[in-house]
Q: What sequence folds into this?
């Protein structure tokens, strides 16, 4: 549950970048023969691409960790896991 | 110099992947990278003007390296080298060294970058590498601690990311200098990310459990350098944008007190050291100009202490008091404890003097209390019984500790002007009072502080609270 909520948060951050990028215009900034008008800002989109990839890999890593934990704590309740593992 | 910089930043990542192809050479390759970093740091010290680089166009990667980064890089190099020596004959697999070197490389790049996106990438890579090192034993507890760390740092960096785009919107570039034009909410978000990542004040309370439950070499790495990667950008921002300097100082003082308060009452060696890290980070932030030297001293001494504490027979102070430890270990422990309490002849002294010179008047009293707390908490180590001659520590342990403690002695020379009578007497008095207080009061005191605030849910909640606090109080009050 926590992992999913973290994913939702990162989706929010990604969406915010996209919104900022498209404030000036909506068209993709690709050179072509037709002049389209207002272009979207490519820089935030380029940056958030890195963040998406990183977020995705962290997600995968955390799920693997959760799988390992699930072997001994099948319910995966964080409160219980925390109680067992704090000295 | 520019080419050297780029080659040096990329070297650890290349080597990190190559280690897997040459598993027999893993330790040598890893050590070579650490030495390369040390060499680069000394080059940087010799350089008069800071190295500033802008790769690929205006939106590209910005690197900026000067003496401040040189101190941090040197810390990183020495601590990594010591940890590799420590693990020399421990039967660690190639995987461990790969992660250690990638961690080393990402910390290096965090220490030289000057724009928010590069910093973000460096911090995320660092988080992943640190996570893999924490879960290396693959027990349930280590996995839980690792997951907790990864989740907290990732959430903090998401806040940071939103702050970064706000800076971009205001300044059309991601460079640190753009912080000046940024709206207060951007400042609040970015600072929250860095404070959490750097383990500062209440948002940094994930740190004690993480540092104390990892393996000995990993805690040494984490406490020695990993948290500094979050602190360095704060120091850099405070130097580049003078308006945020007061806020950084306030957090420095707050965290110095909070950490030392917990450390004094702690009964577990590794947890005490971890809480003490929180407090020492406060010292670094309290005087950003000289933070580099303090970071070097603290990195060396704290990793030495973690390595030594890992070799004590028990982790509980109560048991240790009835269980004599071998004399060589005791000597190493005492040298390290003396340095961190600011005893003359060791670099902790120079660092403390330098920091207290650069404090603002209102900070001085609080920092003196924090220094007193340091003396009290380390009296616990100094007054441990000794005398057993049997020695079962490995030679690799001694090589590692010698590097770190030798570094302390040598770093002492950097600031030899500190040796005036007034400066020498002050720490001696502080240490004296600290020891008295320990022997008379704290040794007999049994207080268990509640740990509720360290629970996972509260860690995330506290982050939001700090965010609100930063936004309303901090920046509204500063009027940026």
A:
């Amino acid at each position: 549950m926590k992992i999913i909520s973290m994913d939702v948060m990162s989706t929010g951050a990604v969406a915010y970048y996209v919104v900022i990028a498209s404030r000036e215009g909506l068209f993709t900034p690709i050179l072509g023969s037709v002049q389209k008008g207002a272009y979207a800002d490519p820089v935030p989109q380029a940056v958030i691409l890195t963040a998406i990839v990183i977020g995705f890999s962290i997600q995968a890593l955390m799920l693997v960790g959760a799988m390992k934990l699930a072997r001994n704590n099948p319910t995966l309740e964080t409160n219980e896991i925390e109680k067992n593992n704090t000295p | 110099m520019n080419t050297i910089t780029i080659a040096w930043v990329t070297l650890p990542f290349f080597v990190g992947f190559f280690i897997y192809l040459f598993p027999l050479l893993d330790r040598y390759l890893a050590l070579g990278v650490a030495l390369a970093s040390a060499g680069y740091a000394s080059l940087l010290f010799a350089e008069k003007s800071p190295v500033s680089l802008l790769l690929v166009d205006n939106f590209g990667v910005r690197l900026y390296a000067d003496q401040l980064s040189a101190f941090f890089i040197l810390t990183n190099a020495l601590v990594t080298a010591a940890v590799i020596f420590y693990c020399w004959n421990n039967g660690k697999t190639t995987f461990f060294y790969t992660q250690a070197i990638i961690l080393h490389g990402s910390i290096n790049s965090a220490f030289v970058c000057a724009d928010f996106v590069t910093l973000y990438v460096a911090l995320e890579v660092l988080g992943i590498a640190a996570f893999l090192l924490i879960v290396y034993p693959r027990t349930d507890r280590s996995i839980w601690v690792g997951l907790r760390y990864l989740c907290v740092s990732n959430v903090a960096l998401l806040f940071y990311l939103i702050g970064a785009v706000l800076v971009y919107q205001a300044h059309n570039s991601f460079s640190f200098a753009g912080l000046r034009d940024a709206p207060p909410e951007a400042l609040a978000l970015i600072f929250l990310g860095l404070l959490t990542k750097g383990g500062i004040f209440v948002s940094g309370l994930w740190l004690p459990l993480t540092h104390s439950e990892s393996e000995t070499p990993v805690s040494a790495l984490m406490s020695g350098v990993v948290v500094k990667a979050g602190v360095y950008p704060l120091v850099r921002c405070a130097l580049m944008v003078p308006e945020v300097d007061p806020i950084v100082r306030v957090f420095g003082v707050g965290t110095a007190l909070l950490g030392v308060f917990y450390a004094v009452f702690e009964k577990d060696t590794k947890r005490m050291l971890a809480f003490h890290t929180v407090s020492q980070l406060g010292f670094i932030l309290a005087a950003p100009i000289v933070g580099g030297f303090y970071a070097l001293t603290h990195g060396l001494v704290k990793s030495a202490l973690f390595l030594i504490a890992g070799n004590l027979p028990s982790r509980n102070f109560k048991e240790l008091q009835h269980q004599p430890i071998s004399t060589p270990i005791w000597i190493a422990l005492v040298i390290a404890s003396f340095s961190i309490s600011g005893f003359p002849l060791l670099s902790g002294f120079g660092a403390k003097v330098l920091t207290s010179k650069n404090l603002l008047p209102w900070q001085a009293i609080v920092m003196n209390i924090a220094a007193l707390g340091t003396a009290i908490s380390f009296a616990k180590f100094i007054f441990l019984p000794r005398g057993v001659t049997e020695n079962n520590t490995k030679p690799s342990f001694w090589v590692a500790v010698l590097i770190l403690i030798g570094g302390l002695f040598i770093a002492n020379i950097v600031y030899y002007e500190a040796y005036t009578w007034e400066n020498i007497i002050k720490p001696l008095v502080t240490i004296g009072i600290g020891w008295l207080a320990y022997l008379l009061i704290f040794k007999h005191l049994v207080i268990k502080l509640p740990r509720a605030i360290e629970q996972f849910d509260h860690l995330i909640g506290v982050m939001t609270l700090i965010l609100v606090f930063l936004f309303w109080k901090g920046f509204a009050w500063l009027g940026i």
Notes: The interface with chain A takes residues 59, 117, 120-121, 124-125, 127-128, 131, 135, 138, 140-141, 143-147, 150-151, 154-155, 158, 161-162, 164-165, 168-169, 174, 209, 212-213, 268, 451, 454-457 of chain B (CB under 8 Å). The first strand of chain B starts at residue 51 and ends at 54.
